[in-house]
Specification:
With 290 residues, the protein is α+β, with helices and mostly antiparallel strands. The protein has 6 helices and 7 strands, in the order H-H-E-H-E-E-H-E-E-H-E-E-H. Bound molecules: adenosine-5'-triphosphate (ATP) and magnesium ion.
């Protein structure tokens, strides 16, 4: 064999050896990836199971609690109405406290059930005109409180793809908040518009109301969390938790900016490609038998 042929042969042997080594490394990586996929799938399945259990638990607890609470409300009312003359002032006051607490609890249970409905709701995608929905909601709010002076500016024809029922519910909560928390200013100004933030289409509901302490922004979207007292503004503290879940189900984000007595702005984005986002969710759910 010539010297050149010998060099070529040894180079070839070396290359084959390197290919073999790379193949081994690739096989090893592949094996590890498959193992990790198995672990992740197993964990998703466990999480899904836990989720189902939790949902069923909170649903049945909420349902089962409704009966006893209604009885407490009912019998307290009977005592207040039929035995009023036999009770002293102190006892009547205590009974009213029991009655109001039972009412609060009943409202909280209804709120938990509403929250559950948002999670269970099967998303149906369609084109949704957010401007039209908002105009209708504002019209309704005006009808309920015709004496309020509220200037509402809605950018026309803001269309998105999403679930109409849920998006309407989300807007209802944001606009009702803007309406409620501007009740001490006149005229109240509410704006619903859109702009681009971080390259993404971003909608916002802005008001000139009482605003909130900026340091407490992280509490806004938690269930039953309220930054204003009940005596000042009525409410359960569930509206924004519902809005949050709706936006998460649309693969988007929601956040707020505000400061005390300087009004508030609530921003939200939906997923850029909602169809592929839902398809991906669906594939993951099916592959893990959710
Ligand atoms: N536009 C706003 N301006 C100022 N504070 C707001 C505004 N929107 C929400 N908040 C604050 O966030 C809290 C939570 O809002 P959320 O809508 O969840 O509850 P709520 O309006 O108090 O009650 P609910 O919506 O259940 O009737 C409110 O209690 C309020 O403190
Ligand atoms: Mg609200």
């Amino acid at each position: 064999m010539s010297y050149l042929s010998q060099v070529k042969a040894s180079l070839l042997t070396e290359t084959i050896y390197e290919i073999d080594e790379s193949k081994k490394v690739l096989l090893d990586v592949n094996k590890k990836l498959l193992q990790q996929k198995d672990i992740i799938e197993h964990q998703v399945r466990l999480l899904n199971e836990k989720n189902k259990e939790l949902r069923a638990f909170s649903h049945s607890v909420s349902h089962d609690l409704q009966g006893p609470i209604r009885r407490i409300e009912g019998f307290t009312k009977i005592l207040l109405e039929d035995y009023k003359d036999k009770l002293d002032e102190n006892a009547v006051e205590h009974l009213w406290r029991i009655y109001n607490a039972a009412e609060d609890m009943a409202e909280m249970i209804r709120a938990i059930l509403r929250l559950g409905k948002v999670s269970f709701h099967q998303l149906a995608l369609q084109e949704v005109n957010l401007s039209e929905l908002a105009a209708r909601i504002i019209q309704q709010l005006r009808q309920d409180e015709p004496d309020r002076k509220v200037e509402a500016a809605i950018k026309p024809d803001m269309r998105v793809k999403g679930d109409k029922t849920l998006l309407e519910m989300m807007l209802q909560n944001l606009l009702a908040n803007a309406w409620k928390f501007t009740s001490k200013v006149s005229p109240a100004v509410i704006e619903f518009g859109e702009k681009i933030i971080d390259d993404k289409r971003t909608f916002y509901v802005k008001d000139n109301g009482v605003g909130f302490n900026a340091q407490q922004t992280n509490k806004l979207f938690k269930e039953f969390s309220r930054l204003h007292g009940k005596e000042e503004f009525a409410g359960t503290g569930i509206g924004l938790a519902i809005a949050y879940r709706i936006i998460i189900r649309h693969g988007g984000e929601i956040w707020a900016e505000g400061s005390k007595n300087q009004g508030a702005v609530f921003y939200f984005q939906l997923h850029r490609n909602i169809e592929s986002f839902l398809q991906l969710n669906d594939t993951i759910a099916r592959s893990t038998n959710a």
